[in-house]
Design goal:
The chain is α+β, with helices and mostly antiparallel strands. The protein has a single domain, classed as Aminopeptidase, CATH 3.40.630.30. The protein contains six helices and nine strands. Strands 1, 2, 3, 4, 5, 6, 7, 8 and 9 form a nine-stranded mixed β-sheet that branches. Helix 5 links the parallel strand 5 and strand 6. The radius of gyration is 17 Å and the shape is globular. The model has no long low-confidence stretch (mean pLDDT 95).
């Protein structure tokens, strides 16, 4: 819990430097923000349109040998969070440029092989998602601010879905806040389908949800 709190403080201070205090506070203290759970059936999708091929970037599964290879262009909290999340039993796909990690996307999965991931992620309960065998939940995608643009986030997300597909994952879940227009378009371009919205409320580290009524 102490390590989680330390990472949270690091992220809080980084967000203030990048976005200002008021904007940061609005992102960690709010009530009844509409969230859109989504899913994509990997087996029926062709992700080649947004391939990382010939872009100078590549993607791979995070391992202990890579945890200390985050680029200096990344926020310092990312490498710290990578070690914490790995210990918690979550997996990550990382975006590589010139041998350095410049982005990551985390996941948990009910795999068909011997790989074991922590299935107790709090988002699953908040969103009402129950993973079945061969399904995954992807969360907390990040790309270094200096590397953003030119559809890189879309290509990274699509490549991550393709990587999970090659791991035997048939369906991937996720979510975005309804007012996050860039996230909305990334998910739509790749082919995610929407599930019924839920209302999220957050007070710093504590998050709650309720079903949205029509």
């Amino acid at each position: 819990m102490i390590e989680k709190f330390y990472i949270y403080v690091m992220m809080f201070l980084e967000d203030i430097r990048h976005s200002g205090f008021k904007s940061t506070l609005k992102n960690i203290v709010f009530r009844h923000k509409a969230a859109v759970p989504v899913y994509i059936d990997c087996e029926s999708r062709d992700f080649s349109k947004y391939s990382l091929e010939k872009t100078g970037y590549s993607i791979c599964l995070l391992n202990k040998n890579l945890q200390d290879h985050y680029s200096i262009s990344c926020r310092k909290s990312r490498s710290r969070k990578a070690k914490y999340n790995s210990k918690k039993g979550y997996g990550a796909l990382v975006l590589i440029k010139d041998g350095k990690i410049i982005g990551d996307i985390w996941f948990t999965a009910k795999t068909n092989d011997k790989l074991k991931y922590n299935l107790n992620h709090s988002d699953l309960k908040l969103l009402g998602i129950e993973l079945r065998k061969g399904e995954a939940y992807a969360f907390d995608m990040y790309v270094a601010e200096s590397e953003r643009g030119k559809d890189l986030s879309t290509r990274f997300m699509a490549s991550a879905m393709n990587y999970l597909k090659e791991m035997g994952i048939t369906r991937v879940y996720g979510y975005y806040l309804k007012n996050n227009i860039p996230a909305l378009w990334i998910h739509k371009l790749i082919g995610f389908k929407e599930l019924p919205e839920v209302l999220l409320s957050r007070f710093f580290l504590f998050c709650f949800s309720q079903t949205k009524t029509s």
